[in-house]
Amino acid sequence: MRLSAPIYQLKRRAKLLARGQNIPLHQAQARIAAEEGFTAWSLLAAHASKNADVGTLLPHLSNGDMLLIAARPGHGKTRLGLRLLLDAAIEGRRSVLFSLEHTEREAMERFCALADPLPETTPEIIATDDICADYITNYLAGSPKGTVAVIDYLQILDQRRSTPPLSEQVEVLKTFARETGVILAAISQIDRSYEPEAASVPGLADLRLPNPIPPGAFSKACFLNAGEVRFQSLI
């Protein structure tokens, strides 16, 4: 099913409808969703997220970049990270997924769902609770410049008491990326307090961070919400 307009235009249309008819935004969104053939706005947003163009990140990245990929659950951040790894593999680059969220089998199933057939050399999948900054840098030591690694996800890196605070780990990763030319991307959650009505796409202030990260930790960021993707340079 093809939407009549990009998701951000449909969201704007819903806001105008809500204001014009003095009805709650969720009711306006439900009407727009019905016009597009969906029984609920959440289904329309999921459809838009699933079909969003997520294959264009790699050309915007440079060796040594630290990339943040952030969204609320179900808005495509993991899919975007996996697509980035597949694009890197297609170009012949080394690509590695460090997953604290999915098993190796689950990750491979998601790769298969994104690419048929898979690249001749598939991304490496590391799925262990031992993942932390030191583990990642040791594993990637000696990798050629332009290697791409994705960490799934940022907030779990310091879940074990034996690992350093998140801020220290991010500094280690940032230094490693700059010194080696490896591209590191970290998938991140957005705080539940984020209100789409206030901003169509979240930003750095909306990150869910029990432990703060140092300013300037990431060089680039990609924020997603309801099918809208916003890429930006942070330095």
TrEMBL record:
GO terms for molecular function: ATP binding; DNA helicase activity. Residues 59-113, 147-208 form the SF4 helicase domain. InterPro entries: DNA_helicase_DnaB-like_C, P-loop_NTPase. Gene3D superfamilies: P-loop containing nucleotide triphosphate hydrolases. One of its GO terms (biological process) is DNA replication. Keywords: ATP-binding, Helicase, Hydrolase, Nucleotide-binding. This is DNA helicase. It comes from Paenirhodobacter ferrireducens.
